[in-house]
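ARCHIVE CARD
Drawer: 12
Card no.: 0347
Subject: one protein chain, sequence and derived structure
Cross-reference: see card 0346
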Amino acid sequence: MQVSAGKIVVLGTGGTIAGKASVAGDNIGYVAGQVDVQELLEAVPGLVQAAQGPLQVEQVAQIDSKDMEFSVWADLAIRCRRYLADETVRAIVITHGTDTLEETAWFLHSVLDAAKPVVLTCAMRPATAMAPDGPQNLLDAMAVATAPGACGVLAVCAGVVHGARQVRKVHPYRVDAFGSDETGPLGWIEEGHVRWAQNRPVALMGWAQSALEKIANGAPWPRVEIVMNYAGARGATVDALVSDGVQGLVVAATGNGSLHYNLQAALEHAQAAGVAVRVTTRCTEGQVLPRAGASLPLGHGLSPVKARVSLMLELLGGGVPV
């Protein structure tokens, strides 16, 4: 249910947006996750007006997102589920680091029934930068959270709205570090107003809500690892992972799912031993097209990191990604 009024819940998880450097203007040598999310919000002029209502602020975690843990994902998802069911909540905004934002976005998309907007935002420069990008991204996130038609799990950065399935970090340093796949972004924020693209967001019930129930009840997360195909690839890593008890493997293949014959053989042996295997591509655009007679299943058109999230949820009984 989309509500036209109500409070916005802001959940902080740390990241560069909450980072500090010892020297103003140092955009690389900073420590992420240092500034409390309440302090971040208070430093942004006009944020309360942009929210168009009351804010409820909670610090879920205070980490560099490269160190994201399953426990944080579980806490975040359980809180989001509770607030989405609350009729007094209009939307949720999550401050997040950039490194694993795309994985968190896809995880939340998969496990939540998000008829209201769940907006992840971030920054590429720390809060102590001479020209930090976090404040504008927060304002833009509020604009999206209150925009007519907003729904589902979205990511907002550098004035662009991305969908959870499409969003990907495409640059290690520049402020506009995120892109969408060939379908393009869902919209843009221009002077506090959202202009939706033709492929505007559509509310979808998360395909893996049953997996979240198991996570909430303490079920262990399945172990799924990623391997890559490259010149001279061998199967020793796969064999070692199987011996170590891995439950799933995602392979970032070359081209249209092509694999070195040694790696392919090891993956087929792993599958025969009961390990779930999914094939994706190293290519940053497009997806692997099915080939007749292929022995290994594909990763539902997802990037390797998102296919890993999906396979974990599948192994928890969550179903098949949509």
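Annotation on reverse: The chain has a mean pLDDT of 95. The first helix runs from residue 37 to 42.
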